[in-house]
Write a structure and sequence with these properties.
It contains eleven helices and twelve strands. By secondary structure, the chain is α/β, with parallel strands linked by helices. The structure holds pyridoxal-5'-phosphate.
Length: 352
């Protein structure tokens, strides 16, 4: 680092994304990308006219995209804001809703970015332990006195909290925002979006990266009551009002209107998830009950890191977390049936 780096960033540990190695072709089951391509409409956006239009700024209000999404969710345009990935919406929420003396609270095992955003904003934060079975105890979040961030379903466990449990958290934190990160909700979870007009402290965050196969386009959004969304718009407009590029806006609109393709892909992933879970259980893995496009599983024979490394040698990437409590678990993205069959054969070769 240079001598110019701000003091407040000296101890910051940045987020480490899953590896995207280029040395050979891997079966990539490590970053929860969708194995299926984006919808057809998204491909049609990439033409000469749209390329030529890149000379113009994108629409800072994302009007077409907002219209498509608000129709889809049955909400008003004032209830939604788009971000350059849902990570950006989370970043806006940390800036908008967390103060130095109050700070943030989130589970001790959850999306790694929450801690990074808290540190970047120099906030106090509390990491609330999961139960021993990796579930969240809602009561631990009552009257937290902090802005709460919960991934639901949680990552990397895949376990879902019921909407009524979340309602109890909302009711017991009337003076704090509760951010529900629904990055994985489309794989069989239950969304809190219908509650946004009932709870003024609820912000729901979703992404096009997982269920809509647009991770590389960078598109996410927040849904909440008008006042919360206005607060986030204030932050967005103080950062970068052109945060969503033209192509991504158009692709997002195409994707959200193609409900059939979305259902087809998410259903395929759900059925492959069942297959993967069954095959791992037959081999005596402990597999947590997943409502996401990944499973969190522990071999009874091989240490987490060993299995991760041996799979990598065989050209299969999964996610290993070097963190106590979960370091014997691997997070395995649900790929295509063929990819998952290759994974299972590789495990059989490793664990003879
Ligand atoms: C993938 C993920 C996100 C961020 O996705 P973006 O690509 O930035 O939209 C947010 N939260 C969780 C829990 C995730 O797993």
């Amino acid at each position: 680092m240079s001598k110019f780096l701000s003091q407040r960033l000296l101890s910051l540990a940045p987020y480490v994304p899953g590896e995207q190695p280029q040395d050979k072709k891997y079966i990539k089951l490590n970053t929860n990308e969708n194995p299926y391509p984006p919808c057809k409409g998204a491909f049609e956006i990439m033409n000469d006219t749209e390329a030529a239009n890149l000379k113009l700024y994108s629409d800072p209000e994302c009007k077409l995209l907002t219209k498509a999404a608000s129709n889809h969710f049955g909400i008003k345009p004032e209830n939604i804001i788009f971000g350059n990935g849902s990570d950006e919406i989370l970043a806006f929420a940390f800036t908008a809703f967390c103060d130095k003396d109050t700070g943030a609270a989130f589970p001790n095992i959850s999306y790694g970015f929450y801690k990074v955003f808290a540190e970047l904003n120099c906030l106090d934060y509390t990491e609330i332990p999961l139960n021993e079975d990796f579930t969240i105890n809602p009561e631990n979040y009552y009257n937290a006195g902090k802005t709460i961030f919960i991934a639901n379903p949680n990552a990397p466990t895949g376990i879902m909290l019921s909407v009524s449990d979340i309602e109890n958290i909302l009711k017991n934190n009337p003076d704090n925002v509760v951010v529900i990160d629904e990055a994985y909700v489309d794989f069989g979870g239950e969304s809190c979006v219908p509650l946004i007009n009932k709870y003024e402290n609820l912000l729901v965050v979703q992404t096009f990266s997982k269920s809509r196969s647009l991770a590389g386009a960078r598109l996410g959004f927040g849904i909440g009551c008008k006042e919360l969304i206005d607060d986030l718009q204030r932050v967005r407009n103080s950062n970068n009002p052109y945060n969503i590029n033209r192509l991504t806006q158009a692709m997002g609109a195409a994707s959200i209107t193609d409900f059939d393709y979305f259902k087809e892909c998410t259903n395929k992933i759900i059925s492959t998830r069942t297959y993967l879970t069954d095959e791992l259980q037959k081999r005596n893995f402990a597999v947590l009950s997943s409502k996401t496009n990944f499973v969190f599983a522990k071999s009874s024979k091989t240490k987490g890191e060993d299995l991760y490394l041996k799979l990598k040698e065989k050209g299969i990437l999964v996610r290993y977390f070097n963190k106590t409590i979960i370091n014997d678990y691997l997070r395995i993205t649900v790929g295509t049936d063929e990819e998952i069959k290759s994974l299972i054969s590789a495990i059989d070769e490793i664990e003879v």
